[in-house]
């Protein structure tokens, strides 16, 4: 009896030892909600059969291409001939798995089950992160087989909107670079790319109704405002970007900055502007101009949202000096430029709603009494208490969280490193740790208001970011922290565990071919030699 007892104790100890080893090796970002490690392993090889459910073919193609290009393993598709095990992708709309969630089971076979294609895709991302980092590279390995730990994962996102904004106006970002960013977002289970397409420094999207927006408005950038180079995305390039993103379950949301921050457009069509960088609300032709631009862009961007901008208008217009605006104000009983701004914001938001789009605006538009369907993007994190955020939640507006003091990716990552100097960076660098530790929903927020928070978006403004290498450096590894705070449940974060999992994530970055900041003295040297 004693011998049997000793045997079972040893068996149990061995189980926990093996489970511990696998747990140490497993690095999935964002961290799954529930994961149970089991004993044993699954051998993935060219004799593994990929069994694909109806409707899951695109996800299967993505998985097959990543394994083939990164590891050199080609799975048999929908065949049982000479197969020793199976990798099954299944969509089950009757399952209890929520939207974008998935179950991953690795036993004698691998099964990924989800109620929708997005969840299935995220299950594939978790599976890929159980493999060598080279799986995210191209033609980097020739592996005949690999062992994967047997486990069970039940996973789903905390927020429905998990985004990143890229400013391509101040310094242009090419189609090639945007596609790479989207690919990396997909790895992180981020699902929204917000493109800041226009600003004072350049108009970056082709509008066929108004060709001078690109022939004149796209000239130059923040560094060389007078050009002569023209930088913009053609409509064909936009379609390619949107399709590439949709394949990876990333929604692309366009932003046309209005009524301010519009000098590039005013150079091209001054009749619709105030002589500076703001639209002229008193000219009825202005809204015809805006409407035609919207109509073209809606055909390019199928996303349900459209960003109208709306920030930093106060004190930045010539409205009060313009006779037509003065008459416009008198006819409506307006006394201030703020009332004119509010009229413009309401008008543009209603134009978008009438076209079937849900408006998004920077937080200032909440003071314009815009339609309650308008999503308010909170960004003034340095202003406390956050009056506009509180007003939006009290009004019942949906909200996106983008506070500059926590998730602005153009802010420095460490003391002494370069970054945007906005608001003095009094809160310190927006480090990997600061972003990870930030809790977007304070305890004081009621349950009714918490449900209005769609998620978190990290903006990357590009006034001081010119090169692809430096842009990557500012995005990675902070994208990983952004992914975690958007995905993992409240109260389940662990910074030490996150740092441990990041060690393999850095290897994935290297395999994927992106530049990135590494922590500690190694990162400091990398920065100094950057």
Automatic annotation (TrEMBL):
It comes from the Bacteria. It comes from Ginsengibacter hankyongi. Belongs to the glycosyl hydrolase 20 family. Gene3D superfamilies: Chitobiase/beta-hexosaminidase domain 2-like (3.30.379.10), Glycosidases (3.20.20.80). This is beta-N-acetylhexosaminidase. CDD domains: GH20_chitobiase-like. GO terms for molecular function: beta-N-acetylhexosaminidase activity. Residues 159-489 form the Glycoside hydrolase family 20 catalytic domain. SUPFAM superfamilies: (Trans)glycosidases (SSF51445), beta-N-acetylhexosaminidase-like domain (SSF55545). One of its GO terms (cellular component) is membrane. It is an enzyme of class 3 (hydrolase). It catalyses: Hydrolysis of terminal non-reducing N-acetyl-D-hexosamine residues in N-acetyl-beta-D-hexosaminides.
